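User: For my dataset I need records formatted as: sequence, then structure tokens, nothing else. Please produce one.
Assistant:
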Amino acid sequence: MKALAICGSPRREGNTEFLLKRALQVLEKGGISGELVRLAERRIEPCTACGICRERKDRTCSIEHDDFHEVFEQMQAADIIITGSPVYFGSATPQIMALLDRAGYVSRANGNLFSRKLGGPVAVARRAGQNFTFGQMLYWYLINDMVVPGSSYWNVAFGAGPGDVEQDDEGVRTVERFAENLVWLAQALG
């Protein structure tokens, strides 16, 4: 089993990344290796709705001058995909949505490549917007026929400045429980 955590924050070492790393630590304790991808270090262009992925059916996107294909290959190789985003103006970051939009189109054009993979989203906000951002990313999992376990609450947390999310005990525990449920589910299906 292999997990991939994708951080949609344009900042390195921020609150979203902290929660994703915490989830990966829990997965590692459960025997599932994981890797973190920071979109802050990648350039992912938005989907142009050209439809070429449906025509070619070769697991590629027509946009070839960015880092999409490398991340998409990592997504295909993973058994578990966790995405994380801070809330920017009430929704997920453009970086994470550009990746998810393109990955979803290419996956669905090629027989639902993510079907029955495990995973789920994590959202962080300074004050509000987590539920919408969480839901926005969750819809991507559901339309891609993926399996998303629950937790003790929605996978959301509060944090404004670097490290603030560590003070949100309930948010951290919720993400840890989500990761524990991923381990349990992977073992049950194993």
